[in-house]
Structure to design on (344 residues):
């Protein structure tokens, strides 16, 4: 196949609705231009805004950080280390990749370490009665992302959610008819409560996982290929498989699903004043961040686990170790598959 732009040998393909096959140099030029267009289209931020990019160590967030720097934005990085994996290897590798890219870009990387800050690791939350560990992890990540953005005076928090992530989340929300989340899923969430909840944006929302992977590989961006060991069986993963199936049968399905939602999402949204009131009622007594309760979700988790540990309640320790070992083994298998000959 020939490159649509220069006629050279095409090596990378964009998703079907974009009708693009490109050679390596044209692809790595096209990708930032596409992101710049998305930023403009959704009015995500202005040239002088200070950005904080939440980088997990995966391809998407590292790619978007690299692109924003190429586009000339003032963009620092933030990594949240949750001590994941056997010997915390998954988190160490993730942080290392973030540090490598930070050094290459000559940009500051801020690191929040749950263990250093609260003497906790995410594995401590494996045995929560009514909550999957990923949900606790999400609460911590969202909390630290916003708190560090406020601390650092960032105007905007950028995440690496791509179109596959957004479609899978949307599908899950629709299947549960979760009106609260359906009212809040957008490429731009404006700042609220006098800037204490920072503006959040997703510049990759119209790019697929495959498109970002191709860019990361062509630019030699180092990233963690394995999935988080705790993510095995996560509903977003089965949602992604289901959507891949539909996309293969009918190319363009994901984009139509996502854009259709964006066009109609106002029907799920309560009036702005109601949103503002819901978030602004209280400040967390522990961390001072806006909260719907006296203690925010993240601080409640910290309190609960710190107390439990102090009382020596390591209930279910053996079961927890068994589950963690199974999750690590599954992740090793996934990593082997990811790096096998069929990997992109
Ligand atoms: P996920 O929820 O793991 O699919 O990640 C979605 C986005 O959240 C990523 O693209 C990153 O921007 C951000 N993110 C996830 N994990 C971390 C982390 N450990 N530290 C900083 N940002 C993260
Ligand atoms: Fe948080 Fe897996 S990334 S539990
Ligand atoms: Zn708090």
């Amino acid at each position: 196949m020939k490159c649509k732009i220069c006629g050279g040998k095409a090596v990378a393909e964009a998703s079907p609705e974009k009708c693009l096959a490109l050679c390596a140099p044209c692809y790595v030029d096209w990708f930032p231009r596409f992101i710049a267009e998305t930023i403009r289209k959704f009015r995500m931020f202005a040239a002088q805004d200070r950005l904080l990019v939440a980088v997990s160590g995966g391809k998407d967030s590292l790619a978007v950080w690299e692109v924003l720097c190429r586009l000339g934005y003032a963009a620092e990085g933030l990594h949240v280390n949750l001590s994941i994996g056997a010997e915390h290897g998954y988190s160490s590798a993730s942080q290392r990749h973030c540090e490598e890219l930070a050094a290459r870009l000559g940009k500051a990387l801020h690191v929040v370490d749950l263990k250093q800050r609260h003497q906790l690791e995410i594995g401590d939350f494996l045995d929560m009665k009514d909550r999957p560990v990923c949900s606790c992890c999400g609460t911590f990540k969202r909390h630290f992302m916003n708190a560090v953005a406020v601390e650092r005076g960032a105007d905007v928090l950028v995440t690496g959610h791509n179109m596959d992530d957004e479609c899978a989340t949307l599908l899950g929300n629709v299947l549960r008819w979760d009106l609260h989340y359906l009212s809040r899923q957008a490429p731009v969430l404006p700042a609220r409560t006098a800037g204490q909840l920072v503006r959040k944006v997703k510049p990759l929302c119209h790019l697929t996982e495959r498109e970002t992977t191709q860019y990361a590989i062509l630019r030699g961006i180092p990233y963690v290929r394995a999935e988080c060991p705790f993510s095995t069986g996560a509903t977003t993963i089965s949602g992604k498989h289901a959507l891949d199936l539909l996309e293969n049968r009918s190319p363009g399905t994901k984009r139509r699903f996502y854009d259709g939602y964006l066009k109609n999402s106002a029907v799920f949204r309560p009036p702005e004043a109601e949103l503002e009131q819901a978030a602004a009622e209280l400040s967390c007594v522990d961390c001072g961040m806006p909260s719907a309760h006296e203690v925010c979700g993240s601080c409640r988790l910290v309190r609960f686990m710190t107390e439990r540990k102090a009382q020596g309640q390591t209930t279910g320790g053996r079961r927890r170790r068994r589950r963690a070992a199974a999750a690590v083994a599954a992740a090793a298998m996934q990593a082997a598959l990811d790096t096998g000959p069929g990997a992109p």
About this structure: The pocket of zinc ion (ligand 3) is lined by residues 284, 286-287, 289, 296, 298-299 (CB under 6 Å). The first strand starts at residue 12 and ends at 13. The CA atoms of residues 183 and 269 lie 4 Å apart.
